[in-house]
Amino acid sequence: MTTIDLHRPYPVSAQQIANFRRDGFIRLKDVFNADELRHYGDEITRLTIALNTQTTPLEERSTYDRAFLQVMNLWEQGGLAREFVFGRRLAGIAAALLETEGVRLYHDQSLYKEPGGGITPAHADQYYWPLHSDRCVTAWVPLQAVPRDMGPLAFFAGSQHVEFGRDLGISDESEREITANMEAHGFPVVDEPFDLGEVSFHLGWTFHRAGPNRSQAPRSVMTVIYMDRDMRLKAPENHMQQQDWEKWCPGAQVDEVIDTPKNPVLFEPAA
């Protein structure tokens, strides 16, 4: 049995950091081993199903709600979920890629794409986040391998600098408009299966999407959203950012560092 230690560092090279800076995302192999994914993944999936409040049949849901079941801040349930989210390995990768002195938790999010689940429309996550800078990143951790028919996450490489589409939430409109703009400007789409243990990281402004789950098995994914340790709250620019402020950063003040009990520092380099 492999020893499970989520604080064990994962080395990130200067070339990988440069690639992330260029592309706005990166995929890293063997971040977790099979034992680690099984140990934490079974509990994360159990909690997701138990805490999910979606009761509408799949075929009657909106495009957004057909994309996945989602449950946020599983870490607050304690136990294995908290251990996973507070692991220094993932957080250390995030700090290295963001080139910051440390990272805080914005929130975690379990994304469970059911068999028959629809597309995840093209979007940029930071549309939802009232954050002052682009130093924020989502770690996308599949809890099993993700073959093409299961709907792996796909990225528009280099799109983190594009302004068009930043005002669109996840919707049929975002899928249509953002995809057309990405194609018109020739941004390459990186849409490949994920091996077991492979993890992607993408910036808040990197446009991405995912295909439907055409398989007979659920696509179970855990995400952790990290932000610069010194990230300041931005005055919300839409009602979704206002909601995020109230949910994930309660008590934080505009233009001040987001230092609340829900936003702990998860990684700082050893002194």
Quote the CATH topology.
Jelly Rolls
Oligomer designation: single chain
The end-to-end distance, rounded to whole angstroms, is 32 Å
State the helix count.
7
Approximate helicity band: 25-40%
* Overall geometric form: globular
Rg from Cα: 17 Å
Mean pLDDT, rounded to whole units? 95
Number of strands: 11
CATH homologous superfamily identity: q2cbj1_9rhob like domain
Q: Quickly give the structural class.
A: alpha+beta
| Uncertain spans | none
Q: H/E order of the elements? A: HEHHEHHEEEEHEEEEHE
CATH architecture call:
Sandwich
Proportion of residues in β-strands: 15-25%
Domain module tally:
1
Major β-sheet annotation: 7 strands, antiparallel
CATH top level label: Mainly Beta
InterPro entries: Phytyl_CoA_dOase-like (IPR008775)
Protein name: Phytanoyl-CoA dioxygenase family protein
GO molecular function, one term: iron ion binding
Cofactor: Fe(2+)
